[in-house]
Design a protein that fits this description.
100 residues; mainly beta; 1 helix; 13% helix
């Protein structure tokens, strides 16, 4: 089975940055669907995760459409903002997590 590397982020909403129960932890990973993970056309999966176990809080969302190098970041940011209310540019990368 292919190992997937998840990037784990922390988003602290600016207006409530000091209130820890408003913080959102989430993961981003290139997942294998019809295209091998990490290649042009492979979907990017976004999911909230719990703290401190980093277990998924359903639902996980797979991006659709174009996920090439030039547009993947922009597309991912739109999904995060639209579905989770997260501004990715204000998030902090806190680490990586390998999963099967």
């Amino acid at each position: 089975m292919e190992e997937i590397i998840n990037s784990i982020y922390l988003y602290r909403p600016p207006e409530t940055e000091s209130i820890t129960d408003t913080w959102v932890y989430y993961r981003i990973a290139s997942v294998n669907a019809e295209e091998p993970a990490g290649t042009l056309g492979a979907p990017i999966q976004i999911c909230r995760v719990s703290w401190p176990t980093f277990e998924d809080i359903p639902p996980a969302t797979d991006t659709t459409g174009i996920t090439g190098y030039e547009v993947a970041y922009e597309h991912m940011c739109k999904v995060l903002k639209g579905q989770l209310g997260i501004v990715h540019e204000n998030s902090v990368l806190i680490g990586f997590l390998a999963s099967n």
